[in-house]
Amino acid sequence: MNRLTVILLICVSFLSCKNETKSSGTDGYSGKTKTNESLIYPEETNFKSLRQVTYGGDNAEAYWSFDDKQLVFQSNNVKWGVNCDQMFLMNAEETFTDSIAPPMVSTGKGRTTCSYFLPDNKHIIYASTHLGGDECPQVPVKENGKYIWPIYDTYDIFVADLEGNIVKQLTFEDGYDAEPTVSPKGDKIVFTSTRSGDLELYTMNIDGTDVKQITNELGYDGGAFFSPDGSKLIFRASRPKTEKEQKDYKDLLAKGLVEPSDMELFICNADGSDMRQLTDLGNANWSPFFHPSGEKVLFSSNFESEIGFPFNLYMIDIDGKNLRRVTHGNTFEAFPVFSNDGKYLVFSSNRNNGGTRDTNLFIAEWQD
C-alpha cells in the first residue's frame, strides 16, 4: 500500500500507496536491458520462475483476488486510452502489450490509486478524485528543488463491481482519503486520511462503518497492509523530529504535498497497539507486504544507495532481524505482493524495459 524516495537522480514520482511511479534507465549489472529469456538475476534465488505481465507505460500496485485467479492494478499507459492512473483487471495468467489493453474497472475520470479486491472476488475498492473533476489533477514535479508527492484532497474511497460500476462510496470526509487495503480475514479496511489534520492511518469495516484512528503522531503514515491473519499492520511512515523538519512537513502538507525522502517501516497490532519502528535504515523504505508466514516483511528500499537509486526488494523478520536483499536490479523494484496461497509474488520493475522509462508488472513463482 503508499509506500518514494530520497532525492532521485532518475525521475521517480509516485502517488499515494504507490504514489505514481516514473523511473528511467536500463537494468542489470552492466546497465544492459535484460531479455525475456533471462529476467532473473543469478542472486535472485527466491524466484523459481519470472514472467513479465505488461509491456509499456507505468504499471504498479497489482493486488490478487482472494481466490488468486485475478489481479487489479493501476496504469497510465496512454496507448490504453488514459492520461493518468486508472484501474485495470486481468486474469492471473494473462499478458498485455501496448496494443492489447485489459478491461478498465475505474470510471476513466480523475486519477485513481490503490485498488484492492473485496472477499467476494466480485468487487474492488479504490480511491479516486473523479468527484473533484473529470480531468487528471496536476502532478507537481518539485518543491524548492525537492521531489514531492501530491496529497489530493479530492480523493475518496469507492466500491466498484468488475464491470467498472461504482456501487458504493465509503468515505465522505473533506480532504484526502486513499490507500485502502483489505484484511485477509475480509472484515476490515485500513486507509490513510487527513481528516485529523495530519496523514494518519484508520480502519473501518468493509461497509465503511466503525471508523477508528490507528496512528497519532506527526508525520506521514501510509501504504498499510494487514498480516495474513489480520492481527497486525505494516506501513511506511515519516517522523519529522527537529523543529525545522516539523515546520517543513506542515508547510508542505498545507499545500497538499509530502516529501517522501525519509521513511521507515512501522508495525503494530490491527487496533494500533504495540506500535514500534521496524527499520532504521535511512533513505526511503516503503511498499511493505507481509510474507505468507506472517513472520517476515518484504519491502522496497534505496538505503544502500548514496544517489537515490537503485530501489530493490528486501526481506526482514518482524523483530527487525535477518535483513537481506531479494532483488538485484540497478534501477527500480517495488510494490511486492504475495498471492494468498503464497506461491506467487507480483511486483513492479524497470527490468527489461529496453532503456525506456516504463515500469512493468512481473509475476514470480516464489520459493523460500
Question: How would you characterize this protein structure?
Answer:
With 368 residues, this protein is mostly beta strands. Helix content is 3%, strand content 36%. It has one helix and 27 strands. It has one helix spanning 243-254; strands spanning 47-52, 59-64, 70-75, 86-91, 112-117, 123-128, 142-143, 146-147, 149-150, 156-161, 166-169, 177-182, 188-193, 200-205, 212-213, 221-226, 232-237, 257-258, 264-269, 276-277, 285-290, 296-301, 312-317, 324-325, 333-338, 344-349, 360-366. The strands form eight sheets. The protein has a four-stranded antiparallel beta sheet with strand order 1-27-26-25, with no helix packed on it. A four-stranded antiparallel beta sheet has the order 5-6-10-11, with no helix packed on it. The chain has a four-stranded antiparallel beta sheet with strand order 12-13-14-15, with no helix packed on it. β5 (112-117) and β6 (123-128) form a beta hairpin. The chain starts with 46 loop residues before the first strand and ends with a strand.
